[in-house]
Amino acid sequence: MYYVYVLISKKDKKFYSGFTADLIKRFKKHQEGKVFATKNRKPLKLAYYEACHNKYDALQRERYLKSGRGKRFLRSRLKYYLKNNGLGPNEAAE
User: Could you tell me the domains of the chain?
Assistant: First the structure.
């Protein structure tokens, strides 16, 4: 099983999307600052994830979530989460 996940930086209020076979281990690495792309964007919250049966499907889904349409999907899907955490739909960027 592979997981596609979305983190939100409380620092810059931006999304970070990725995929992994071990979601808990990967999230801990992000929290510990061991991931280059997010080490200066802490604190991070796990806002969304999906499970996929194979690596290819997870990779394709990750690419979609990083696209303009994918970001619009996330803002719509996470509308109330973003609002309740001070990241209104128009405030959460990339």
Answer: 2-84 (3.40.1440)
